Amino acid sequence: MTSRQSSLFPDLFQECDIPKPVNVASIPQRSPFRYPGGKTWFVPTFRAWVGNLYPKPKVLVEPFAGGGIISLTGLFEKLVDRVVMVELDEDIAAVWLTVVQGHSEWLARRIVEFNLTKESVIKEISKTDVDVKERAFQTILKNRTFHGGILAEGSGFLKYGENGKGISSRWYPTTLARRFTDLNLVVSRIEFRQEDGIEVIRQYSGQKDVMFFIDPPYTAGGKKAGKRLYRHCELDHEKLFAACETIKGDFLMTYDNAEEVKSMAREHGFQMRLIPMNNTHHATMEELVIGKELSWMDQYPAVHEPETEYRTKKVPTNACTRTRRPQRASRR
Ligand SMILES: C[S@@+](CC[C@H](N)C(=O)[O-])C[C@H]1O[C@@H](n2cnc3c(N)ncnc32)[C@H](O)[C@@H]1O
Predict the structure, then answer these.
(1) pTM of the model
(2) Of 98, 167, 205, 297, which is least surrounded by CB within 10 A?
(3) Which residue's CA is the nearest one to ligand 1's atom 7?
(4) Are residues 275 and 224 in the same domain?
């Protein structure tokens, strides 16, 4: 949680109005998931990023797709021609595979016809040896009835939910069904791959007309959040940063604002900005955005380099000084 300390340089802060967190209710929700760590709040930045790229990339690769809000927004808003969504989790993969195999209508019907009670959900999700469509339905049921939408081991049913409605408080069958049928409008432009995201980055990294939105599980430096939220949370973060360095097109990466992450970004010569967002508990946090060239994000506070020997006065970390470092100048 951030509380901006009152500044020794009040003019500096007044001048540069740090943006407020995005109101996610104002963003069209295209994803059928309520995804832990979902990036709906990032949609306005994503739009600005694409708008700033010239020539416009044709393909967006999302190597850690999860609920896929960024890919889906790219397609529905015609920001890109095609997306490649990558996700290792078998449950999540079952949903995207069902969609790309043309069974969105089937899933939509299954959802509206289901009579949801705790007993019916338990009966349904206990079924083993199911095909990919039924597994997709089980995933949606779990995602909508488990606490925080979390599918990882140890997750349990919503206790109170919205307005004390418990297990059914996030079950909006008509809305959900419509999200699936709407996906038919863009499905021909989706390629889904249940593979390792870093490998897929490497496969596309040489192509200049490909952009990457990279949102890995936040586990760098032993951070716990990613471990609790995702079944697949072990990631070689250094290997991911090395893969990003090979990207010929453009990429943006989101991470938690952790020292280990910032040093890796510096090590690889990337730039960083901090974006405010409201987490599920409505607390304002700052998330780190990492990329090659982020001058188009100058309204957001830059992350400063560690103190250098010749600097004698401390600059407040949240001051939006407009200094920009030349690419790779900061390798150390
Ligand atoms: C932070 S979440 C992505 C959330 C997504 N951006 C959204 O808006 O819903 C990270 C995702 O990466 C997946 N994941 C973890 N390791 C992976 C890997 N090596 N390759 C592909 N996906 C992976 C996790 O299962 C999780 O769904």
Answers:
(1) 0.85
(2) 205
(3) 38
(4) yes
